[in-house]
Here is the input.
Amino acid sequence: MAARPLAAAMAVLAVLGCTVPAHEAALPALDPVGQLQRLLPADIIFLGEQHDVPEHQRIQRVVVEALARQQALAALALEMASQGQSTATLGPQASEEQVRAALQWNNHGWPWSDYAPAVMAAVRAGIPVLGANLPKDRLAQTMKDTGLDALLSGAALQAQQERVSEGHCNLLPQDQIAPMTRIQIARDVAMAQTIAQATRPGQTVLLLAGASHGDRRLGVPLHLPRHLRVKTILLQAGSAAEDTEHADQFDQTWPTQAAPVKDYCADFIQQRSAAAAAAKSKKEP
Here is the structure.
């Protein structure tokens, strides 16, 4: 897959593969701080969002601030930045520009304005913010690494492959499904490595990532040491009672108001068409 189509495909995977269905139901007010206390103590808390729901990013900030006030936050880890990037050398007064530089933030893939409140709340509290995602320079190698297939059971691997195919609107060529699934597995492994290394006795590492990465059958929890106390939260746009398939894989489901319906597949098809047209124009004299 060429670089430009790969970037488009990964963008859709990041959104579609990390979302759950939204429903139009009136919901009671959510008390994230109260709900959070029921999960503590924990070595790791996974907070799984739907990337395009602003309410989920607001809740992330609330959770960061609550844990920081209790001096219980060891580190804030992010799917939105690459493994190896960190704010650990910055002080609490660091500017947003300095933080973005330290994390090598990709504003095109992850709008800074969405995540800045949670990230800067951690920085201001003196908490290190860690990139946890698979670095882009490892993508090509990862797609060829058949050893990653063995990290999931046969049934789980098939389920992950089906999820990746559906996340790409069932438009991926058959020979690309396994390589793209390896990227998803490697991303989960990278996040698991980052948060496991950041754990501290008596404190909690908080991971912010798309909801599908928190699935206990397929995602990050599967690759963590068993002795760690791992708690997972699903932020769900819509009623929790209407999506038991996803909710069963999380310790808590925090429902928020339903998000506007968006045709992600139409966007994906448009991206593919634009990429194909650009590639064709380059070949023509």
